[in-house]
Design a protein that fits this description.
This is P-type Zn(2+) transporter. It catalyses: Zn(2+)(in) + ATP + H2O = Zn(2+)(out) + ADP + phosphate + H(+). Among the domains are: 82 residues, Calcium-transporting ATPase, cytoplasmic transduction domain A, CATH 2.70.150; 198 residues, Calcium-transporting ATPase, cytoplasmic domain N, CATH 3.40.1110.10; 138 residues. Helix 3 runs antiparallel to helix 4, helix 7 runs antiparallel to helix 8 and helix 7 packs parallel to helix 21. A 7-stranded mixed beta sheet has the order 10-22-21-20-11-18-19, sandwiched between helices. Strands 2-1-3-9-4-7 form a 6-stranded antiparallel beta sheet, with no helix packed on it. A 6-stranded antiparallel beta sheet has the order 12-17-16-15-14-13, sandwiched between helices. The protein is 58% helix and 15% strand. By secondary structure, the protein is α+β, with helices and mostly antiparallel strands. It contains 26 helices and 22 strands.
């Protein structure tokens, strides 16, 4: 509702209220004629507004209950029931004003986005910074963003920046961004001024796309509103029939007037739009942009969910998952050589390798004499050593393959992973296993979606069958459909729609057709393709899949509140109509009663603004989450050494076994065990308070006890190893314990990281 229309509603409310009160004053002074005149004067503007509303509804081929209000006021005036007419007018004016206020409040989160749109940019031209219109910015322009300014267009940073991205993501945390990182339009600079290079025009930037989506969402009417109109038509006919019947049977036209009074305005025209817009507003506040009320309602009714894999269920980018090192070479050395050389490459895999080394705080050297062969690998010099990284074919042409290479390549095939092989001075030093890992929040999101009523979860992907089925088995999806083209995905969605409403979640350009075909298309819009965001009905502005759960939850609760409000309001109105038809409810009292019903209906519909987004008692500070994850990164080499020792234990000379086991026992005693003890005593109590419940960390603490037990058992067995080394049976027992410890620690760390991510501030 625009501001002029809101002003009209307020004027109507004020005028009807003043005329009613003034008429009552004159009636108290026994000037009945002047009192009637004042009540009539206050009634006519409302009557005119009703006529305008009815004409506009008829032009849209819609029917509503405004006709009942018109008849009620007309009957009242015709019967010289001026006070009743004035009260009905005040009731209608207050209801319209209250509805306007409710919708305005509900739209606040979405409309705020439009008001913050940037208008200008500071562009470097002619050796100075000049203020230019936003439409004049082109890709490649050098821009300056001052403290407090909104980033005008999408681009990449030249310097460091501190950004408040809450406008787009709903998360209030300040983000530190480094040179070269992408930055989206619409975020706010909260640090010192920084420079950036524009990557898109204003019209093609993220913020402009979101503004278009919001405008579209605010224009679209909900199917529930149209459904309410159809109910309203039957309600009008029933009310007219009851009014006419009571008049004909009793001969008292006042009864017909009373029936019409309590029949209008029906909660149908108030509850549904207020609840739907409130639900959309609640979603927007949490970074879930729903483009229309129709999408919100279809989301509430869906029971079949299709997911793209890459970038949706998984992170969409490779991460280091394991390091294979040759005999005599430490895993950290392999990673340091690869990351040092990788600094000179812009390939995404090289960037992932470099990021992994920095996470582990490894000192990197500056590479020289770098020669990159696109699609194959990179060769260069690091600290006086000739280093080559890349595919097996590329590196093996420059370095002698090692004995472990064949088994490693087979393992990559089984696990559907990729690898960066590392050659140093003509020898294969090791390899880095890379994989697109499942998002931390994905398992929990799928579990919660099933709780919200999703019956089938189907994964669509273009990946190989073995890779897709491995991911599907890990996540417990209902069905896996691998090796699909965009056309295949589209056909799968179209076929599934015959069974009921279908939701499709994706992030890439190749997902756009399927998103458009689904009853509800959901795009991972935080870093996904613009095409998928434009084709989708719902856009997740936060790069977290569990926000979709909130969208489902809000949609279902919103629909429940809307239906509840409509049914309750209609039931009360029908009951009042029946009472009025029998002559027990005078028109004036009926008008007051209907006003109470309308206020109650709107207040109930506004509950959609307060739908709980999470059942947790609190959140983990972002700094604490980063610290806890960093501790796991530091623990990574220890976990790697457990598996490495278990693999090579049978090949070690007898006298060396005792020393290797003793070193491992010391490593566990000084690194792993203290870390887990500190978590159990200091971290878990805080997490338990955030989760709520009596003992929510019991299962995680039990894993700590198992880690302590195995570590202690290994130390005791190591102390009993003879100088010449253990026998074959003892070797197998050591391997069993080491492999078991490796599996438990990896699973435990993965569970903790999922929990940290779930509890993170702003999640």
């Amino acid at each position: 509702m625009t501001r002029p229309l809101r002003s009209v509603e307020l004027v109507l409310l004020a005028g009807s209220a003043v005329s009613l009160v003034t008429g009552i004053v004159f009636a108290g002074l026994d000037d009945v004629a002047l009192a009637h005149a004042m009540w009539a004067v206050g009634t006519f503007p409302v009557l005119l507004a009703l006529l305008v509303s009815i004409v506009k509804a008829l032009q849209r081929h819609e029917a509503g209950v405004d006709v009942l209000a018109l008849l009620a006021i007309g009957f009242a005036l015709g019967l010289s029931e001026f006070l009743t007419a004035a009260v009905i007018s005040l009731m209608l004016a207050s209801g319209r004003a209250l509805e306007a206020y409710a919708q305005e409040r509900a739209r606040r989160e979405m409309t705020a986005l439009l008001s913050r749109a940037p208008r200008h940019a500071n562009r470097f031209e002619g050796g100075e910074w000049r203020r230019v219109e936003l439409d004049a910015v082109r890709p490649g322009d050098r821009l300056l963003v001052r403290s407090g300014d909104l980033v005008p267009v999408d681009g990449s940073l030249i310097g460091h920046a501190q950004l408040d991205e809450s406008t787009l993501t709903g998360e209030s945390a300040i983000r530190q961004r480094s040179p070269g990182e992408p930055v989206n339009s619409g975020v706010v600079s909260v640090g010192v001024a920084f420079e950036m290079v524009a990557a898109a025009s204003a019209a093609d930037s993220t913020f402009a796309g979101i503004v278009r989506m919001v405008q579209s969402a605010q224009r679209e009417r909900s199917p529930a509103s149209r459904l309410a109109d159809r109910y309203a038509l039957w309600f009008v006919l029933a009310a007219l029939a009851l009014a006419a019947g009571s008049w004909l049977i009793s001969g008292e036209i006042a009864r017909a007037l009373a029936v019409l009074v309590v029949a209008t305005p029906c909660p149908l025209i108030l509850a549904v739009p207020v609840a739907i817009v409130s639900g959309m507003s609640r979603c927007a506040k949490r970074g879930v942009l729903v483009k229309g009320g129709g999408a919100l309602e279809r989301l509430a009714q869906a029971s079949v969910l299709f997911f793209d894999k890459t970038g949706t269920l998984t992170g969409g980018h490779a991460r280091l998952v394991a390091i294979e090192a040759g005999i005599g070479t430490a895993p950290e050395t392999v990673l340091r050589f690869a990351a040092s050389l990788g600094q000179a490459s812009a390939h995404v895999i090289s960037e992932a390798v470099t990021a992994a080394a920095r996470e582990r705080n490894l000192p990197l050297s500056l590479p020289t004499r770098v020669d990159e062969r696109p699609g194959a690998g990179v060769q260069g010099e690091v600290d006086g050593h000739i280093v080559a990284i890349g595919s097996y074919v590329f590196v093996s042409s420059l370095a002698t393959p090692a004995s472990w290479c064949e088994a490693f390549l087979h393992r990559l095939t089984y696990e559907g992973a990729s690898a960066v092989f590392v050659g140093v001075d003509g020898s294969m030093a090791g390899a880095l296993q890379m994989a697109d890992q499942i998002r931390l929040e994905t398992p929990r999101a799928l579990r919660l979606l099933k709780q919200e009523g999703i019956k089938r979860v189907v994964m669509l992907t273009g990946d190989r069958r073995d890779v897709a089925e491995t991911v599907g088995a890990m996540l417990g999806v209902t069905e896996v459909r691998p090796e699909l083209s965009p056309a295949d995905k589209l056909a799968a969605i179209q076929a599934a729609r015959r069974e009921g409403p279908v939701v499709m979640v994706g992030d890439g350009i190749n997902d756009a057709p399927a998103l458009a075909a689904a009853d509800v298309g959901v795009a991972m819009g935080a870093r996904g393709a613009a095409a998928s965001s434009e084709a989708a009905d719902v856009v997740l502005l936060v790069d977290r899949l569990d926000r979709l759960v909130e969208g489902f939850r809000v949609a279902k609760h919103t629909r429940r509140i809307a239906v509840q409000s409509v049914m309750t309001g209609m039931a009360l109105s029908v009951a009042a109509m029946v009472v009025a038809a029998f002559g027990f409810l005078p028109p004036l009292s009926g008008a007051l009663l209907q006003e109470i019903i309308d206020v109650a209906v709107i207040a109930n519909a506004l509950r959609a603004l307060r739908i709980r987004s999470t059942a947790m008692a609190g959140s983990l500070a972002r700094s604490d989450e980063d610290r806890l994850k960093a501790e796991h990164v530091e623990l990574g080499p220890v976990v790697g050494q457990i598996r490495e020792l278990a693999d090579k234990l049978p090949r070690l000379p007898g006298p060396s076994v005792a020393g290797a086991l003793a070193n491992m026992s010391d490593l566990l005693a000084h690194k792993l065990v203290p870390h887990e003890q500190r978590d159990d005593q200091e971290v878990y109590p805080d997490l338990a308070r955030l989760l709520g419940g009596e003992d929510p960390m019991a299962a995680m603490s039990a894993m700590h006890r198992e880690i302590f037990r195995i570590s202690r058992l290994l130390r005791q067995m190591t102390e009993a190893v003879p100088a010449g080394g253990p026998d074959a049976d003892s070797i197998r027992e050591f391997q069993r314990l080491l492999y078991g410890l490796d599996a438990i620690v990896r699973l435990h760390c993965a569970q903790e990281e999922e929990l940290f991510h779930t509890l993170a501030e702003g999640a």
